[in-house]
Amino acid sequence: MNPFSTAKNVFSQALNLMPRAATQNTISNHKTEAFTFGDAVPVLDGHDLSNYMECWFNGRWYEPQVSLEGLSRSYKATPYLSSGIIFKRNFLANLFIEHKHLKRKSFEQMALDFIWCGNTYAENIKSRLKNTIEYKPALAKYTRAGEHDGQYFYIYNSHEGYEEYEFQQDRICHIRETDIDQEVYGTPEYISALQSAWLNEAATLFRRKYYNNGSHAGFILYVNDAASDPNDIEKLRTALKESKGPGNFRNLFYYSPNGKKDGIQVIPTSEIAAKDDFTNIKSITRDDTLAALRIPPQLMGIVPSNAGGFGDIKSATEVFYHNEMKPLQSRLLQFNEWAGDEVIKFKDYELIMPK
After folding, report:
1. How many other β-carbons are positioned within 10 Å of the β-carbon of residue 320?
2. Nearest to residue 136, comparing CAs of 169, 112, 102?
3. What family does the entry list (predicted)?
């Protein structure tokens, strides 16, 4: 046999066994991809069917244009929103003069409903002689306006399931915040700041999950030392697994007598978390929420980040009272026109000055 032919055949077989062709095919099968995680829905997207109607009439009552269930959940999304709403409620309740037909507790509920959803309802409870016994608030989250004037429904879930109750005609006083889209229900003034409130909540939940998972102590342990014992590697793997969650921040000891430099490398994976602008997000969304509620930050107990502070708290309180609370009081005074009596009254606000 010709030795050159034999060598040629062996060389050809070796070329066929080389993984070069398979590697090229594998690489060619992988394509570059670009993807996104989804964007926040803009206000002017033009694809919302609710933009083509005012308030949907379901045959018995009108559905609110804004989801009251979503608003009630957003109320609890961030402390700046809920605390600002409660602060306004407390300010009004502090100046309210109690009436024999309207208890202070009932007024607090009416004020809270008007601030958080832009609607407040009060039922006129009458005796058999048609005299007013008291004015009782109906929770705005479950009250709906009917087709005709003075017609209102109360929908709720009890222990017996879903129930509907229709109030007697002209027994409900409805005070609503003004709106530019419809005249059935009111909308809260802070609705433009909901995106900021949700971002504040998302940032807080992300940071909380980040710490609960122990990821702030995360890293990649890269071992490329051939002298390492497989049993030691398995023990090291077990120790790393136990260091997550409640067992994080533990120190690990690894002994490799015949190891070489850089045989074991620790590569951090969580450094990006320190650059997620958590503090800036919390600060900016807080400012947006307080701007929508129009509450000075010093009245909310917020610590200033600059040396100059927020200014005189006395002046801020007086401006807030005259520019924000007085108009809010005038809206609630519409109840007196409906009741035919001066049921809701407020005393003048006075700062307690030290002697």
Report:
1. 20
2. 102
3. Belongs to the phage portal family. PBSX subfamily.
pLDDT tens across 207-230, in order?
888 777 665 555 667 777 665 667
Burial letters 108-134, b for 16+ CB under 10 A, else e: bbbbbbbbbbbbbbbbbeeeeeeebee
Alpha helices in 243-323 (DSSP H): 278-293, 313-320
Distance of alpha carbon 205 from alpha carbon 62, whole angstroms: 35
> What's the DSSP call for residue 65?
S
Please give the C-alpha separations between residue 346 and each of 91, 148, 259, in angstroms, as whole numbers: 11, 32, 81
Tens digit of each residue's pLDDT (9 = 90 or more) over 1-56: 565 566 566 556 656 655 554 444 444 455 555 555 556 666 555 555 455 457 88
CA distance 60 to 41: 31
Whole-prediction pTM: 0.72
Query: What is the torsional sign of CA 330, 332, 337, 340?
Result: negative
